[in-house]
From TrEMBL:
Record-annotated disulphide pairs: C76-C85
Keywords for the protein's UniProt record, in alphabetical order: Disulfide bond, EGF-like domain, Repeat, Signal
Name used for this protein in its record: Neurocan core-like
Originating species: Brachionus plicatilis (Marine rotifer)
GO molecular function: calcium ion binding
Length: 233
């Protein structure tokens, strides 16, 4: 039987609760230092022991295992996907301008004006080098019956390597974690990111995310960047 290389582990054993306008939300520890100095928030720190769901190294093919409160998440290396990163994207190839929804779907044509990039078979995109701010690019993508680029995996980030483009995540207060529209946390931040324009703890300067050189960086939503829209599936 072929041996599958196991990946490293990354544990998150601490959590804290942030109360904002009466709403309680759970975040990881990384933003605590900014939140405790924010006069607009009341922070209750909770240190909890949780089960190490990564202890049996479930993530394959060089993926990183992130331990969560109730589960684990595998951050797949380039070319792999699936809950445990056990599936190779190369096995699901579609011809240019054709894509599939998932590994069980057949290849079908992209919608008009959209195409596939870099042999990635699971979505179609429209890229324009016209520079737009965050709100303008969101509106533009919606008008095309699509949405702003949402690259959740390393392989998806690699599709547009070399571009400086908006991605689909925005925050409203200092220390709020960047998440995708479905609530999943954004992984793949650049070193020291997000830094809110140098680490100011009280005023939100950088409320959106840009993609550059395979990583995400916080930036103000009024700057202008390349437009990448992602087809609705």
């Amino acid at each position: 039987m072929k041996q599958i290389k196991k990946g490293p582990q990354k544990n998150e054993f601490c959590s804290f609760v942030v109360f904002k306008n009466g709403i309680c939300s759970l975040h990881t520890e990384y933003a605590l230092t900014r939140l405790v100095n924010n006069p607009n928030l009341s922070v209750v720190y909770k240190k909890e022991f949780i089960i190490n769901h990564c202890s049996n190294t479930p993530c394959m093919n060089g993926a990183t295992c992130v331990n969560k409160l109730d589960e684990y998440v595998c951050l797949c290396d380039l070319g792999y996907f699936g809950k445990n990163c056990d599936k190779s994207i190369n096995n699901y190839y579609c011809e240019t301008d054709y894509y599939r929804l998932n590994e069980t779907d057949i290849c079908k044509p992209c919608m008009s004006g959209f195409t596939t990039f870099n042999n990635y078979p699971f979505n179609c995109y429209k890229r324009e080098y016209i520079q737009r701010d965050y709100e303008s690019v969101n509106s533009y993508c919606r008008d095309l019956n699509s949405f702003l680029w949402t690259p959740k995996t390393r392989t998806e980030r690699n599709i547009f390597a070399g571009n400086r483009a908006w991605v689909n995540s925005k925050i409203t207060y200092v220390g709020e974690p960047f998440v995708w529209p479905d609530g999943l946390r954004v992984y793949g931040m650049g070193d020291g990111e997000p830094n809110n324009g140098g680490g100011n703890n009280n005023l939100l300067y950088e409320n959106a995310l840009k993609y550059h050189e395979n990583y995400f960086h916080s930036v103000h939503s009024t700057v202008t960047l390349t437009t990448i829209c992602q087809q609705l599936n």
